[in-house]
Amino acid sequence: MGINQLQQAVWALTLACGGCMALEGDTACVALAVALPGLVTFPNSTLYAVENIYWSARQSAATPDCFVTPRQTSDVATAIKLLTALNTPFTVKGGGHTAFAGASNIEDGVTIDLLFLNSIVVSDDRMTVSVGPGNRWINISETLDPLGLAVVGGREPNIGVGGLALGGGLSYFSGIRGMACDNVRNYEVVLASGEVVNVSPTTNPDLYWALRGGSGSNFGVVTRFDLASFEQGDLWSSSVIYPGILNTTLIPLFQDLTVNGLPSDSQVHTYFVQTYIPALGGFAILSDQYRATPLPDEAIPRAFAALQAVPSIIKTTKVANVSTALRGIEVAYGSRQTWWNTGVSASSAALLQDFVPLYEEHVFRLLAAANGTSITPFFVYQPLPVNVLTAMQVNGGNALGLYPEDGPLVIVQVSVTWENAAIDDLVESSCKQLIKQVKALAKSRGLDREYIYINYAGKTQDVFRSYGNASYTRLKEVAKAVDPQGLFQKLWKGYFKLDRPKCRPRD
Ligand SMILES: Cc1cc2nc3c(=O)[nH]c(=O)nc-3n(C[C@H](O)[C@H](O)[C@H](O)COP(=O)(O)OP(=O)(O)OC[C@H]3O[C@@H](n4cnc5c(N)ncnc54)[C@H](O)[C@@H]3O)c2cc1C
């Protein structure tokens, strides 16, 4: 039997199977291997081992029946048509940077790895860069830096384009341009039917809105992002580490920066990390500060003057290109990871300060449980100043349900890196408890903002309902319009689904 006959046989089986019981992943893999010769990798092959490398060890622990590695959009369409017709559970891997198990990898099913959809094309007028979803942000910056161009993207080299841009995308340039999702001119998308559509403010505008924060797994596989590019030279950046004991000085400065400093100069960007590093004597604070355009003589931007004046342990200041800035915070692969977050109002320094003892209790709980094995607990304040919220409203706004009048906000992010699998449950429950305490304290002062940032969310967080009723209802309507049978809700496993079981208690 020739390959064409085999392919016809597979499609005959597929059509006959329409609506049949779910076909096991390993059987579907055989059908996929026939339909997409050379693009399916099975366990015990070298490529399978490479594809099963994820940033978080908890994701690599899954062993899919096979990986499908499309080389072009039509391969993705073929894979989706087959998987939906065969009723086979699957997931999609972009850059594989989600922390929790099963977000973009699957046990007993198929993982579509977008790795080889990695083209980068700059338009003749330099206004648009079309990128495949298999790219990491470093591939894009390394192409654009020599051209004096940039896009609104991630702040770490290896994050995938897909997950970051479909969930939002906080960037060095967010103060001027909003999130990465607000700077996509057009998406090429494979829908649940296998149809390939373009999505822009004028073509499929509802889906365009939904893809800006609604994530891929409810709507479609994005096979090309046409990103708005802009002229960009070197950035100014300063990375400062302070002793944790200075938190009572630094937190009020950070809060003032969020409310006043960042909106006064939309070129600047920052975040504020509290952590515990025994080598630095215990609690430590990291403040990363950026300005998109360096000032004359590389002067310190006025917004950061107060933070820069506080005595620090280590300070590294440079003027360099985007790739260098990305490499400045490269985070190693291979550890166990969890990320959680919740939004609060930025209006009270006392609130941000009063979270610290809660964080410290969490740290001591984790250190005791880790019993000498490696563990690093982070407590991060990611500001969403009013100028970022304003910039997010372009082209009809995004799905996040955030408006300038809601701001300024701080996303309070709780994340942990550890090694010992035996304490997984304890780490998760400690993070949940801390998030609950943060929310409760904020609520008691009328400062809770009911917003969960999907890109930093924990597995059981109710992300889409946190966008508010209007946004959640519209997301559901768009999903129904593009996938009337709810195939992706049923078969595309992992990450955050709109059809979350109603009985699950809110975290
Ligand atoms: C070290 C580190 C640094 C980070 N820095 C930032 C930052 O600076 N700013 C920020 O906003 N976030 C940041 N994040 C969070 C990051 O944006 C999310 O983890 C994001 O989901 C990662 O995208 P990914 O493609 O690598 O992940 P994946 O785990 O591969 O994908 C996440 C989800 O997106 C889906 N998906 C991916 N690609 C596509 C596609 N093409 N079409 C449809 N669905 C797709 C996947 O199926 C999955 O559901 C960081 C994360 C890490 C681990």
UniProtKB/TrEMBL annotation:
InterPro entries: FAD-bd_PCMH, FAD-bd_PCMH-like_sf, FAD-bd_PCMH_sub2, FAD-linked_Oxidoreductase, Oxid_FAD_bind_N. Residues 60-232 form the FAD-binding PCMH-type domain. One of its GO terms (molecular function) is oxidoreductase activity. PROSITE patterns: FAD_PCMH (PS51387). Keywords: FAD, Flavoprotein, Oxidoreductase, Signal. Residues 1-22 form the signal peptide. PANTHER family: BINDING OXIDOREDUCTASE, PUTATIVE (AFU_ORTHOLOGUE AFUA_1G17690)-RELATED, FAD-BINDING PCMH-TYPE DOMAIN-CONTAINING PROTEIN. Belongs to the oxygen-dependent FAD-linked oxidoreductase family. This is FAD-binding PCMH-type domain-containing protein.
